[in-house]
Amino acid sequence: MAGPASSGFNAAMFITLAKNLKSTPLPVTDDPRWARIVARDKSADGEFWYSVATTGVYCRPSCPSRRANPGNVQLHDTLDHARATGFRPCRRCNPDGPSLEAGNAAMVADACRRIEQSEEEPSLAELADAAGRSAGYFHRIFKAITGLTPKDYATAHRAAKVRQGLEDGASVTSAIYDAGFNSSGRFYEKSTGMLGMTPTRYRAGGASEEIRFAVGESSLGTILVASSRKGVASILLGDDPDALVRDLQDRFPKARLIGGDRDYEALVARVVGFVEAPRLGLDLPLDVRGTAFQQRVWQALRDIPVGGTVSYAEIAQRIGAPKATRAVAAACAANNLAIAIPCHRVIRKDGALSGYAWGAERKRALLDREAGGSNAPDSAYQSARS
């Protein structure tokens, strides 16, 4: 009877076969990076590159070009490896330089600095010329990144300067001109929308301003909703209704607080309904009071879809201020409109929840509910309360 050696398959042949199998690359479609190319995942830019044999180019993962046949694609861990193919860089995605998204963010950040440093509001044409773009393209990209038009951003910045001047004790006239308005008439046309009240009343600390409010209960605790004539100015969460009312008084120390009637309580019910069923959405007129930077951050928060999360660093990138991570965190902490401006959807880069003005357990409950689409009260939060 023949032994193993006579079978025609010896150890040397086995080793050779194993080496050949090991050196045979897996199909590109079996590599998880291919799915990121298909999705044009911008977050993958800088992590790897790919080249296409039939076109002789190499690209970044988010390249907007027509999807290549995976059989012609090779993946590269570094840019040098992609260049070593001898192919040319793709003209559409510019893999050798900054991505289009990063370039646009830098362009908008520079425009914001120009607006903030100009004595008078620069025109759209001036900003677009400085950026080297057409007025239409610049306007579209600026609004997509900041959530504001260039004009609205300039107005918000000047409003913040007026508020600061009034808070520092300057006369109304001085505050208006120091903020870059070349006539008091132009300012007074917009003053109520910018400050939420007349400048004289703002300088007096909001004296005589009327704030309507009402309190409701949800599975996440007590909710207080307060509105000015312009819109909802505060949404506060807590466990003690009296503590929330005192908090509201601290936020509007000289305003006249008025308990809401039955119609206003219906508004509170809408907010409670959103807490219980986030996917129903919440579309309310808001009275958003903050600096130009804070409003950029808050608009970026409102663009996060239900069920989604981003990091503070990602928000900083989206508003064109990649180094302002701490300032973004501070803007989140200064948010007066819980849920309506969803600062609970911002987490740390490592996935940790980080802080939340209304309690980490509420933040976790909101995120869990939004991610799962569940309308049921969060048992973990209820346990934490009891």
Can you walk me through this structure?
The protein is of the alpha/beta class and 386 residues long. 46% of the residues lie in helices and 11% in strands. It has helices at residues 11-23, 32-38, 79-83, 100-117, 124-131, 135-146, 150-167, 172-178, 184-195, 199-203, 241-251, 262-276, 292-302, 312-318, 325-333, 360-372, 379-385, and strands spanning 49-52, 57-59, 73-76, 88-89, 210-218, 221-227, 232-238, 256-259, 310-311, 346-347. The chain has a 4-stranded mixed beta sheet. A 4-stranded mixed beta sheet has the order 7-6-5-8, with helices on both faces. Helix 4 crosses helix 7 (150-167) and helix 14 (312-318) crosses helix 15.
What portion of residues is helical? 40-55%
Shape: globular
The total strand number stands at: 10
Mean pLDDT: 79
The main β sheet shows up as: 4 strands, mixed
Indicate the proportion of strand residues.
5-15%
Give the C-alpha Rg. Answer: 28 Å
SSE string, helices as H and strands as E: HHEEEHEHHHHHHHEEEHEHHEHHEHH
What oligomeric arrangement do these chains adopt? Answer: single chain
**Taking strands numbered 1, 2, ... along the chain, how are they ordered across the largest sheet?**
3-1-2-4
User: How many separate helices?
Assistant: 17
Distance between the termini: 79 Å
Low-confidence stretches: 1-7, 169-173, 182-189, 374-386
- Could you say which structural class the secondary elements and strand pairing correspond to? alpha/beta
Record the SSE blueprint.
Elements: H1 11-23, H2 32-38, E1 49-52, E2 57-59, E3 73-76, H3 79-83, E4 88-89, H4 100-117, H5 124-131, H6 135-146, H7 150-167, H8 172-178, H9 184-195, H10 199-203, E5 210-218, E6 221-227, E7 232-238, H11 241-251, E8 256-259, H12 262-276, H13 292-302, E9 310-311, H14 312-318, H15 325-333, E10 346-347, H16 360-372, H17 379-385
Parallel strand pairs: 2-4, 5-8, 9-10
Antiparallel strand pairs: 1-2, 1-3, 5-6, 6-7
Helix pairs in contact: 4-7, 5-6, 7-8, 7-13, 14-15
